[in-house]
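Thread title: Can someone regenerate the structure for this chain?

I was given the following input by a collaborator and told the matching structure tokens would be attached. They weren't. Posting the sequence so someone can regenerate them.
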Amino acid sequence: MQDAVPAPRHLAARLATILAIFTTIFASNVPTPLYAVWQAEWDFSSTALTAVFSVYVIGVVATLPTMGALSDQLGRRQVLIPGLLFIALGGIVFSLAGNLFGLGAGRLFTGIATGIITGTATAALVELDPDGNWPRAATISALTLTAGATAGPLFSALWLRVDIAPLVVPFLVVSGLAGVSAMILMTVDWPSHLGQRRAGFRLREWRLAEMAVPREILGAFAFAGAAVCLSWSAGSLYAALGPSFATELVGIGDRTLAGLYAAAFQLIGGVSQFACRRQPPRRLLLVAPLVLALGMVICVAGILMTSPVIFALGTVTTALGCGGTGVGALGTISLVAPAARRGGVISAFYVLAYLTMASVVLSVGFAGDLVGLKLTMVVLGALTLAAAVGLVTLGLRRKLIGIRA
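Best answer:
Regenerated them for you:
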């Protein structure tokens, strides 16, 4: 029988892991209010802007399905520290960027880090929980994600108001925070029997994790996948173009205020996820997509009427719907995935979400250059409404999707 690990040692390791998650998501969202500033200063298209945003997905998709499995063998801390070094590198590249290629490289490094850290850190939190309470660990992880996603754009938007090297200082803060987080992880006491390198493991023996969806759950996977794609696509629009919508389409001249729309979206979406976590997934997916679609319609109304207030109301409503839809989609996958293949199914689920997110954002950027952002948003609002109605209609057919209320 193993000796109990003293609570303070567990606590220190948990706090270090939480800081790693916060740092990663903070870094991922710091650029959001600054895209419109770079676009105005360097005069590049909306297509180019969304391409820079989407490069992040390449890094995430390349690492997310593989790093969790590697950390099972190599050790949690041994994988988290290199991930944080990628965050620091991305911050330095952003701070030195003088063109789109520099921004793209910064986003790529940040995406690689996100793929390395998120799954590994979540697994570490579950292992480090003193009572083995995985729902509590998952809740802590979700709250930390929300905190980082809110703090990132909030900080860079407010720094725009301070106006002291606003395109440099936020990223130096990112690099500094990543360095501090890595140092804490290196020095903190880590329980000797949890998340450590497996005896006899050799890196050359490691293989990529299999991403496969069993045939018997394809219907439920398609349903949940469509839901998460709807949720993440709407969320990514605010992350990539939210400040541009605020400045170009609803007449907000203050770039700090425009950046706060993105921060508010992340905060409200996170609160919605927390509030919905105990609801049955099917119930969420019969309501939340319609709330999301209603929010997009209100946003379009705000754009057509050039009303910041109506656009803000639409932002809040969309974020509420995004949070509930995302929780319902993940809950559905968790319910139907066979325990022995859950890791591969969830990896496939997230890869689908990230690829769809990038595709939608790129399409909106291209369409915005072709016919204008206003018309693009009107069409997108109509498509979102149709998709939400179709998803809810599908959700009413229990036998097709294979889940119970």
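The chain has two domains: 1-193, 210-405.
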